[in-house]
Design brief:
about 15% helix; globular; about 140 residues; alpha+beta
Length: about 140
């Protein structure tokens, strides 16, 4: 009986890990706002929400490698604007949030499937480049 119980527990752990490894979300911005340079001044303005993000559980190799940061990170995010860039993310079970801190600051609640993203570049560097301006976005995520 004990052997059967151990075997069942092992199967649950293996199947549970396989399911978790396959978890992912596709996320799309629904509203965005930001700041743009105009005649030497920075003005707030509405930005067309267009970016999409993909969140997925890290593979075992990613978790044990530099992206996993010693097991601290368990998710990875990429965006449609730079799909080759993988941003490591943590998961906080208490708040149900996945947090990613790369070029973009990204937070997503796995229960509500809402996300908030902040792109914090452009202004502080002193640039007046309209293609690299700070903005904030919110949106929704769904399983693919």
């Amino acid at each position: 009986m004990k052997i059967a119980a151990v075997a069942v527990c092992f199967l649950v752990l293996v199947v549970g890990d396989a399911r978790a490894a396959d978890e992912s979300f596709e996320c799309a911005e629904i509203q965005a706002t930001g700041f743009v340079p105009s005649e030497g001044n920075w003005l707030s303005g509405s930005i067309k929400p267009a970016s999409r993000y993909r969140l997925r559980s890290m593979t075992a190799d990613e978790k044990s490698g530099p992206l996993g940061d010693g097991g601290r990170n368990s998710w990875v995010m990429s965006s449609d604007t730079a799909p080759e860039v993988k941003t490591p993310c943590t998961f906080d079970a208490a708040s149900h949030e996945i947090a990613c801190n790369g070029v973009e600051r990204f937070r997503m609640n796995v229960k509500t499937r809402r996300f908030f993203m902040a792109y914090l570049h452009g202004y502080v560097a002193g640039d007046a480049d309209t293609h690299d301006t700070p903005y904030l976005a919110l949106g929704l995520c769904f399983p693919p």
